[in-house]
Design goal:
Blueprint: E1 5-10, H1 14-23, E2 29-35, H2 47-50, E3 54-56, H3 59-63, E4 70-73, H4 80-89, E5 93-96, H5 104-114, E6 122-124, H6 132-142, E7 149-156, H7 163-166, H8 182-186, H9 188-198, E8 203-210, E9 219-227, E10 233-239, E11 247-253, E12 256-261, E13 264-270, H10 274-280, E14 290-295, H11 304-318, H12 329-345, E15 349-350, H13 355-367, H14 373-377
Parallel strand pairs: 1-2, 1-4, 2-3, 4-5, 5-6, 7-10
Antiparallel strand pairs: 7-11, 8-9, 8-15, 9-10, 11-12, 12-13, 13-14
Helix pairs in contact: 4-5, 5-12, 6-9, 9-12
Length: 388
């Protein structure tokens, strides 16, 4: 079925504005409406877009916009679930920005509600699944090219942020306003990719440093150790206080070592699987011979976010398979929740995570947050959605 999907955007801050501009270049999408609680937010939009769309300050009226078919939700984390559910109740397909919620229990509430609307397309904005290097690595793992994976190390410390960034909104980097720090705000993509590529661990043990580099009440450094049911182990290291920082994924597998860094995949491939060499070698120190391979990666000319939006539009128009179904958003979120819970309680956490226990812990932190209960209750009267 040809045509265009009529989209709307809720939340016209940095992300929402970027999404509006991006939609101008997507052939199967037409942006028809935007919504933000602060009228000044619409000043962020280029004039050519403002002239074409209808601007709303109330979601109830926004959802009733004639012809509106799908919405992209780009507001702070605590509002994702309620707005996504409201979209479905109004018969709209949706894309929700990462993370899909603040904690596992809320994510499950969204998934349970989504099950009531099987005719609607529901996607998460996990745009890094579209990167050619990530897609190539996923294919290599799924087709068995690496053999059994024994260890995974991912260092993601290039999320550098200044104090000025955190001071730009009183809700930023607070338990009540944002629900967490680097794990919830900067790392949802890598947490999603960890589970997408390697599955879910069964045990997480982590250290989480609160305000190590910044004057904030949430974590800005995490070192996590992961154990998987098949014996694989993992290390996940992230921070917003290192410069220049590193983004390096290293996989140790039976058929060699893979390094993904700077968009390049290097595969030092064993001629003989490691376990075979251990068992059958006739000398004590002989490693398998290797081939040093730079893996060819296809080019993707489209921006990452545009690929997700186009995919959702195609799913609506002709049933194309979703790249990032919203139901999968719970896994990376659960992984991050487990890391934070382990770090704050200083005890290992088994997965599946006890969602109620985590929610109780977070509620306790939020109750003492400097962004207090009054501000959360009155969030609809603040500029939270305009600063995302």
């Amino acid at each position: 079925m040809a045509g265009k999907v009529k989209f709307g955007i809720i939340g016209i801050g940095n992300m929402g504005t970027g999404h509006a501009e991006m939609m101008e270049d997507i052939k199967n999408v037409e942006l028809v409406a935007v919504c933000d609680i602060k009228p000044k937010a619409f000043d962020h939009l280029p004039e050519k877009i403002r002239e074409k769309v209808v601007c709303y300050t109330e979601t109830e009226k926004f959802f009733k916009h004639e012809g509106l078919e799908a919405v992209l939700i780009a507001v702070p984390h605590y509002f994702h679930v309620d707005l996504a559910i409201a979209a479905m109740e109004n018969g709209k397909h949706f894309i929700v920005e990462k993370p899909i919620s603040v904690h596992k229990a809320e994510a499950q509430r969204l998934i349970d509600e989504a099950a009531k609307y099987p005719h609607l397309v529901r996607s998460a904005m996990f745009n890094q699944r579209t990167l050619p290097a990530h897609r190539k690595l996923k294919a290599m793992i799924d087709n068995g090219e690496l053999g059994k994976i024994n260890r995974v190390n991912w260092i993601i410390t290039d999320w550098f942020r200044t104090q000025r960034y955190y001071d730009s909104g009183d809700w930023r980097a607070t338990w009540a306003g944002e629900g967490g720090g680097v794990l919830l705000n900067q790392c949802p993509h890598q947490l999603d990719l960890m589970q997408w590529l390697f599955g879910m661990p069964v045990l997480v043990s982590a250290q989480a440093k609160i305000g190590k580099y910044h004057d904030i009440e949430v974590e800005d450094e995490v070192n996590a150790y992961l154990e998987y049911a098949d014996g694989c182990v993992g290390n996940f290291i992230t921070s917003t206080g290192e410069a220049p920082g590193t983004n390096r994924l290293e996989i140790t597998a039976e058929r060699g070592r893979v390094i993904l860094e700077n968009g390049t995949i290097n595969f030092l491939r064993n001629e003989i699987e490691t376990s075979v060499q251990i068992r059958e070698a006739t000398v004590g120190f002989k490693k398998p011979d290797t081939w040093d391979c730079t893996v060819s990666i296809p080019h993707e000319p489209r921006p990452q976010h545009a690929v997700i939006v186009e995919n959702v539009a195609n799913a609506i128009l002709n049933g194309e398979k979703l790249i990032a179904p919203v139901e999968e958003g719970i896994r990376g979120l659960e992984l991050g929740n487990a890391m934070l819970m382990s770090g704050l309680t200083k005890t290992p956490v088994e997965l599946p995570l006890d969602a109620a226990k985590y929610a109780e812990m977070l509620a306790g932190l939020a109750a003492n947050s400097r962004f207090g209960k009054k501000e959360v209750k009155e969030a609809g009267k603040t500029d939270m959605s305009t600063t995302y």
